[in-house]
Amino acid sequence: MNQTEVGVLAAQTVRAGAGGGLLVRAPFAWRTLAITVPLGAFAVLLALALVVPGASFQTHLVHDHLIFADLAHRVANGAVQHLDFHSPLGILTALLPAWGYHLSGSYGAALPTAHALFLLGLTPVLLYVVQTRLRWFIALPLGAYVLLLVATPLLPGHAVSVLTWAMWYNRLGWAVLIILLLLALPPNRDREPLVLGDALVAAVLVGILFYTKITFALFALAFLLLWPLFDPHARRSALLAGGLVLLFCVGVELLWPIHRGYFEDIAFAIRASPQVTSGVLQPLKQALRFPTETALLLLGGGILFARGRSWRDALLLLFIFVAATMIVVQNTEDRALPLVVAGLAFAAERLWRLGAEPRDGWRDGAALVVLTCLALFLVQPLLHSAIALTTHAWHASRVQQAPDLPEALRGFQVGTAKGPRIAVDTPDLLPEAARAGPAAAVVTSLFSDHQRWYLSGSEYLFTIGQAVAELQDSGVAAQETFVFDALNPIPMALGWPSQNGVLFAYHVNRQFSREVHLPVETVLGHIDIALVPKFPLGSREKGLLLELYSGYLRQNFRLARESEYWEIWQRRTRSATAGKATVLAQANQPPPPAKPPAVRSKPAPPAKENDADALLREATEFQERKIDEAAEDVQDLNERRKALQEPARHDN
Question: How many of the other CB atoms lie within 10 Å of CB of 524?
Answer without folding.
Answer: 21
